[in-house]
Amino acid sequence: xxxxxxxxGMTCGHCVGAVTRALERVRxxxxxxxxxxxxxxxxxxxxxxxxxxAAVEDEGYRAxxx
Length: 66
Ligand SMILES: [Cu+2]
Hints:
33% of the residues lie in helices and 36% in strands. By secondary structure, it is an alpha+beta fold. The two termini are 14 Å apart. Copper (II) ion (CU) binds next to α1.
C-alpha cells in the first residue's frame, strides 16, 4: 500500500530528512520517500493517513493526502 502526501514548508535537505524520519516513525510505515522539489512524500506500508499527516505537522510542516 502506498500513500501520497502533499507537504508544504520544506526548504532544504534538512527539512526532507526531518519529514522522512517523522514518517518512518509512524506505525506501519516501511519506507518514506520525500521530494523537496515536488513537495511530496510517498509512503509505503499500511499506515493510517491521518497519522502520517499528524507526524508531518508535529515537525512543523503542513501536509494533506494527495
Ligand atoms: Cu530545511
